[in-house]
Amino acid sequence: MNTPSPANLGEKTPITIVTGFLGAGKTTLIRHVLEHANGRRLALIINEFGDVGVDGEILRSCGIESCREENIVELANGCLCCTVADDFIPAIEALLGRNEAPDHIIVETSGLALPKPLLKAFDWPPIRSRVTVDGVVAVADAAAVAAGRFADDPEKLARQREADPSLEHDNPLEEVYEDQLLCADLIILNKADLLDRSTLARVHGDIAATVPRAVKVVETREGRIEPAVLLGIAAAAEDDVAARPSHHDAEEEHDHDDFESFVVELPAIDDPASFVAKLARLAGTHDVLRMKGFLEVTGKPMRLLVQGVGQRFRQQFDRAWARGEARRGRLVVIGEKGIDRAAVTAAIMA
């Protein structure tokens, strides 16, 4: 039996913003929530950095009744925090206007999004009276954070901070990561199983030193967490924006010129294990932040989902190719500005 919709009761519809850096596990977390929704009608708004919607396609292939395909809205090739008026608010209004309005809306930002500008959008009169931000959830990749993936030299940076706590940041990776933590009501330390307890303790300490207010940090593996922990924070975060500092507060506008993404079109591959091993090597050589996409494997009826964070990759067959569907491989590559697209593409195709 479905829970009555807040829209039908004259109440505000709760919205949860799920943010987190590239490859932290946002989509895996959301899929787990969908699979354990217990009859609650959910809707998703998914934002991708680039023009290929891998995350939306993963969630559409779930076939989960709690979130039917028509309740999944994908906004690709543009950051939500930059396109609020053009894309985001119309998407919210369309979901709220459905005959069966959702009980809860989950917004998955791109891995490079700053959540605070998006949070500010909920103060807009057209939607403020109809929705409330139940909470901002930041997903962090525990192993990546422990490896200092968000600082060029984490030990040097720590020493500099001790000498000058007001030190300005000049690392765009670290700034995006910290902005996501600073806006959060709940921090999910995902992939915690990849670290030992002493390293995890150090990561917890680093997060506590970054976030000036009390925010709960929960360790997870594969994004497995009780949905009630995420959907029921009741933070009304739109009323608490000032308590969420950002490295970009002084900027009238922000952009994502520090990062680039491009798509590599691929023919069918014969040996997935060897191909993914090659991707891991070239990610290290060319300092690729993230790779993800779907590939065709010769002689296989199912498509192969490949996802990489730095040099850590995973692969799985996620579903069969549909009848009449074009079997083409497409791999999204994300890196910092100046990444050698030609060299990376040549290495992938070699």
In short:
The protein has 350 residues and is an alpha/beta fold. Helix 2 links the parallel strand 2 and strand 3.
Task: Give a written overview of the molecule.
The chain has 350 residues and is of the alpha/beta class. It has two domains: 6-243, Rossmann fold; 259-349, CobW-like, C-terminal domain (Hypothetical Protein Yjia, Chain: A,domain 2), CATH 3.30.1220. It has twelve helices and twelve strands. The strands form two sheets. The protein has a seven-stranded parallel β-sheet, sandwiched between helices. It has a five-stranded antiparallel β-sheet with strand order 8-12-9-10-11, covered by helices on one side. Helix 11 (272-286) runs antiparallel to helix 12 (341-349). The N and C termini lie far apart (54 Å).
Task: Note the main attributes of this structure.
7-stranded parallel sheet; 2 domains; 5-stranded antiparallel sheet; disordered N terminus; about 350 residues; Rossmann fold; Hypothetical Protein Yjia, Chain: A,domain 2; alpha/beta
Secondary structure blueprint with pairings:
Elements lengths: L12 E8 L5 H10 L6 E6 L6 H7 L11 E4 L8 H13 L7 E5 L6 H6 L4 H4 L2 E11 H5 L7 H10 L8 H11 L3 E5 L6 H14 L5 E4 L7 H4 L28 E8 L5 H15 L3 E7 L5 E8 L2 E9 L8 E8 L4 H9 L1
Parallel strand pairs: 1-4, 1-5, 2-3, 2-4, 5-6, 6-7
Antiparallel strand pairs: 8-12, 9-10, 9-12, 10-11
Helix pairs in contact: 11-12
